[in-house]
Amino acid sequence: MGEVLVVDVLVDIVGYHTARVLLPVLSVGRIRAANWTSEIPGGWTGWYKDDDRRLVFTPPMAGWIGVFMWLLALVAIIVATGR
């Protein structure tokens, strides 16, 4: 039970907010995360295109992308320091 809560917190809060901030910055505004309260379904892929043809990730998918960004940063730090 406790492990599930930790994963939910990481993905839902930390991952989502990381993706919400970094996706538009890294993609120069072409990719973004949907609002937390968005009701627009993303289908099985977890994304959709808005009226401006920007790629918009649903909140659950954005959360996983944010966690993946943190994992990539951790790997980069480990490789850079040689530990």
Question: What is the strand and helix layout of this fold?
Answer:
Blueprint: H1 2-26, E1 31-33, E2 47-49, E3 55-57, H2 59-81
Helix pairs in contact: 1-2
Give a summary of the structure in a few sentences.
The chain has 83 residues and is mainly alpha-helical. It has one domain (2-81).
What is the overall pLDDT average? 88
- Give the radius of gyration: 14 Å
Shape: flat
Q: Unreliable runs, pLDDT <50, ≥5 residues?
A: none
- Helix amount: 55-70%
| Helix-and-strand structural type | mainly alpha
Number of strands: 3
What strand line-up does the widest sheet have?
Answer: 1-3-2
Strand content: 5-15%
Order of helices and strands: HEEEH
Main sheet, how many strands, which sense, barrel? 3 strands, mixed
Total number of helices: 2
Compute the separation of the termini in Å: 32 Å
- When the domains are counted, the total is 1
Explain the overall architecture.
The protein has 83 residues and is mainly α. The protein has one domain (2-81). The chain is 58% helix and 11% strand. The chain contains two helices and three strands. It has helices at 2-26, 59-81, and strands spanning 31-33, 47-49, 55-57. The protein has a three-stranded mixed sheet with strand order 1-3-2. Helix 1 crosses helix 2 (59-81). The longest helix is centred in the first third of the chain and has 25 residues, at 2-26. The radius of gyration is 14 Å and the shape is flat. The model has no long low-confidence stretch (mean pLDDT 88).
